[in-house]
Amino acid sequence: MRTVKSFAELSAESPRYTDEVVLLLSHTSGKYKGGGQFKYDSSKVGQNDGGTVANGWVRVDLTLPQPEWFGAMGDNVRDDTLEVRKASQVNNRLHLVGDYIVTDTIVFDRANFFSVTGLDKNSIVRNRCVGKPCFKFQTREYTEVKNLKIRVS
Predict the structure, then answer these.
(1) pTM (two decimals)
(2) What does the pLDDT profile of the chain (153 residues) look like in tens digits?
(3) 125-145 burial, b for 16+ CB within 10 Å, e for fewer?
(4) CB 37 within 8 A of CB 23
């Protein structure tokens, strides 16, 4: 399997054969976060959402969406609001494995349920949304939040 160093590089790559699958090493070159397998789908040429589709290349496994797919660092330095928001829109699950700064409310409005899970004991969301919540859940049946620390800082 061919490897690609970054999401930007993946967007510029052409497939070598029909239905080729490549391994993305990292969303951002050298950071080793947000990688995964991508399969070429010619019907997606020209589409780019910054994390799951890159000019015909489509992420193979969408079951555990993470902000790192969209370039989040989860390092308690950089604002990861946009990347967390994009990852929350992939399906009805969001998996966090870092220390994220969120500066604007992220609305979870899936029809029936939504699950936010910290993948390790150090998963933290730092609420820097002055005077408002970092997460707002608008699901019909239930919302599940587990193994996640939310801190106001």
Answers:
(1) 0.93
(2) 999 999 999 999 999 998 999 999 999 999 999 999 999 999 999 999 999 999 999 999 999 999 999 999 999 999 999 999 999 999 999 999 999 999 999 998 877 789 999 988 789 999 999 889 999 998 888 899 999 999 986
(3) bbbebeeeebbebebeeeeeb
(4) yes
| Sequence-separated contacts (24+) of 135-139 with Cβ below 8 Å | 135/102, 135/105, 135/106, 135/108, 136/105, 136/106, 136/107, 136/108, 137/108, 138/107, 138/108, 138/109, 139/108, 139/109, 139/110, 139/111, 139/112, 139/113, 139/114
